[in-house]
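Problem: given the chain below (100 residues), write out its structure.
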Amino acid sequence: MAKLTSELELTCPCCGAIMVVDANLGRIISHHLPERGDKPELNQAQRILADAAARREALFEQSVQAEKTRDDVLSRRFEEALKQANQEPITKPTRDFDLD
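Solution.
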């Protein structure tokens, strides 16, 4: 395809993608992603899937442990808040009507 004079070829500084923009239309005409250097090989697929499964299992175990100790944590926080409430003096709340 012949390049027109109104077409600009731009390279993204972040990802290195190449975009062709038509200045007259003000639109992107084409977009080409750069080749990734860290593209996984097909023979590594089983290892990648096993690593992902192990990571999911570890996250699940972590959430199970957090859920088991959740009641203890909540009861400790409640006890702390109750102690703090008992130590504070009892005062009459101010109302908007009292401020006039």
